[in-house]
């Protein structure tokens, strides 16, 4: 699925220039006023057609953004921002074809939104402040409506200064039921990282970052920011066990809400992948280590073996012992962390081909876009993350017309991982041997290059950004800009966390 390109030493040079500046400034910079538009004429995104309930079943929810003192483990707690008082927020489960209506009420003292990560919906419901809506101010509310067309695992989170607000706990799971095998259990697990015993801002260990980048570790920055791993908002012994009896099967839905890649080790022979980013995959015979990138969703079929088992984070990283999911039966004692990380190979979101493709044959592109991912220096603000040597809102947009086939060549010549996520569309990751996987997020590691294709079939103004939101907040964002439509919202409306 990938080919390799030569890495650059420019990152090391940049890292040696001055101190590292914490990612405080939102990616929608204050200096960028005005609207996103392909020209001065055309139709506002608020004039585009919207879905109506009609005779569909209607599922209604209320989500209240509020401050909560949240216990991670034992006496360790954090001041969290939550939807409905828990981390993660309320689990939203609907059926394929349902009309979903969610009222967001904001009881925080800062603006918030909800982005429906991975859901293909109308542009005005996408939850991106300054692009598809104004952020919801304290004391106000906003109602999101969309049709749950595509079964699978999704999640929702704030897109208002998301590097900060998602870190504070503003996220939750969304499951659209209606596909997959019959199983005994169906559970969702959201993975995350927290700064519990340290200040999140203290990630200025230049030596550690430089050594990590020189050793090919694409996460030398994020590893310094956090000291605790969580599963559904809990760490270590506070993680509730998964209760299953020997021989039972479960659909386990994993969502990575953090900014660090995670590797989960399953009992040998117990797991096979079902879907990635809500797209079914096939040919899933493989290893027992699951690698999941920031923002990615992966569903697996798990079969319970004898006694008490554990699904545990690979021990190769610090804080791994925090992320262990006990799998217990009616009888059995606690099981220790596995002594070895793997008895098989690791699988990831690009390991298997999708069951249904967007393009059966390699399409001819109407629009081609080269996306070079890098890091730069703004002498006024410190380090920035760039697309084609520019930081948002100065990054070149992907300009399309409705119906275009769009080809994007994504190259990472830097030293850090960049999980690139496209809003409002699915894309096909194409390999030279004809294999392909359909996704909405691709983790581009240092030295990697991918070619993706998608059809411009959902008019609007759509983000394409790194889902290490720390990188997005410092500029690694561009826009898929449809001709003839524009956003009426002001980019400088989101200057506060």
UniProtKB/TrEMBL annotation:
GO cellular component terms listed in the entry, alphabetical order: periplasmic space
Residues reported to bind Cu cation: 117, 157
Membership in a protein family: Belongs to the multicopper oxidase family.
Domain Plastocyanin-like: 65-178, 215-303, 383-480
Region Disordered, residue ranges: 329-351
Presence of the UniProt keyword rRNA-binding in the record: no
The name this protein goes by in its record: Copper-containing nitrite reductase
InterPro entries from the UniProt entry: Cu-oxidase-like_N, Cu-oxidase_2nd, Cu-oxidase_C, Cu-oxidase_fam, Cu_oxidase_CS, Cu_oxidase_Cu_BS, Cupredoxin, NO2-reductase_Cu
The organism's taxonomic lineage, starting at the top: Bacteria, Bacillati, Bacillota, Bacilli, Bacillales
GO molecular function: copper ion binding; nitrite reductase (NO-forming) activity
Pfam annotation, one family: Cu-oxidase_2
Enzyme Commission number(s): 1.7.2.1
Compositional bias per record (Basic and acidic residues), positions renumbered to this chain: 332-342
Protein's cellular compartments: Periplasm
GO biological process: cell division; denitrification pathway; nitrate assimilation
Cofactor: FAD; Cu(+); Cu(2+)
Transmembrane regions: 5-23
């Amino acid at each position: 699925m990938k080919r390799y390109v030569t890495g650059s030493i420019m990152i090391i040079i940049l890292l040696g220039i001055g101190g590292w500046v914490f990612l405080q400034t939102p990616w929608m910079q204050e200096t960028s006023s005005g609207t996103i538009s392909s020209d001065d004429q055309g139709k506002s995104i608020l004039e585009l057609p919207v879905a109506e309930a009609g005779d569909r079943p209607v599922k209604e929810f209320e989500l209240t953004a509020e401050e909560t003192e949240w216990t991670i483990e034992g006496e360790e707690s954090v001041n969290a921002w939550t939807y409905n008082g828990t981390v993660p927020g309320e689990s939203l489960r609907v059926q394929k074809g349902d009309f979903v209506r969610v009222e967001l009420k904001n009881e925080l003292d800062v603006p918030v939104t909800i982005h429906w990560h991975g859901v293909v919906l109308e542009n005005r419901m996408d939850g991106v402040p300054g692009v598809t809506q104004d952020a919801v101010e304290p004391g106000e509310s906003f109602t999101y409506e969309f049709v749950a067309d595509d079964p699978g695992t999704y999640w929702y989170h704030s897109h208002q200064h998301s590097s900060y607000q998602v870190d504070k706990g503003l996220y939750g799971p969304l499951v659209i039921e209606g596909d997959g095998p019959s199983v005994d259990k169906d559970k969702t697990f959201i993975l995350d990282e927290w700064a519990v015993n340290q200040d999140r801002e203290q990630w200025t260990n230049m030596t550690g970052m430089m050594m990590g980048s020189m050793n090919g570790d694409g996460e030398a920055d994020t590893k310094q920011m956090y000291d605790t791993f969580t599963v559904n908002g809990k760490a270590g012994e506070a993680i509730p066990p998964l209760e299953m009896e020997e021989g039972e099967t479960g659909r386990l839905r994993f969502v990575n809400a953090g900014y660090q890649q995670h590797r989960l080790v399953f009992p040998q022979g117990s797991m096979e992948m079902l879907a990635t980013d809500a797209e079914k995959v096939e040919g899933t015979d493989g290893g027992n280590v699951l690698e999941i990138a920031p923002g990615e969703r992966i569903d697996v079929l798990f079969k319970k073996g004898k006694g008490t088992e554990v699904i545990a984070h690979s021990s190769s990283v610090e804080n791994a012992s925090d992320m262990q999911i006990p799998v217990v039966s009616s009888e059995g004692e606690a099981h220790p962390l596995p002594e070895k990380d793997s008895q098989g190979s690791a699988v990831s979101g690009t390991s298997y081909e999708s069951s249904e493709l967007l393009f059966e044959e390699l399409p001819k592109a109407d629009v081609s876009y080269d996306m070079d991912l890098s890091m730069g220096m703004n002498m006024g603000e410190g380090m920035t993350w760039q697309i084609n040597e520019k930081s948002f809102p100065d990054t070149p947009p992907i300009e399309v017309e409705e119906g275009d086939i769009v080809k994007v060549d994504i190259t990472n010549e830097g030293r850090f991982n960049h999980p690139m996520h496209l809003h409002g569309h699915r894309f096909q990751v194409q390999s030279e041997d004809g294999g392909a996987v359909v996704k909405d997020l691709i983790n581009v590691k240092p030295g990697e290059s991918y070619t993706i294709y998608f059809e411009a079939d959902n008019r609007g103004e759509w983000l394409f950004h790194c889902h290490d939101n720390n990188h997005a907040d410092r500029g690694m964002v561009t826009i898929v800009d449809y001709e003839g439509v524009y956003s009426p919202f002001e980019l400088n409306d989101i200057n506060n966390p």
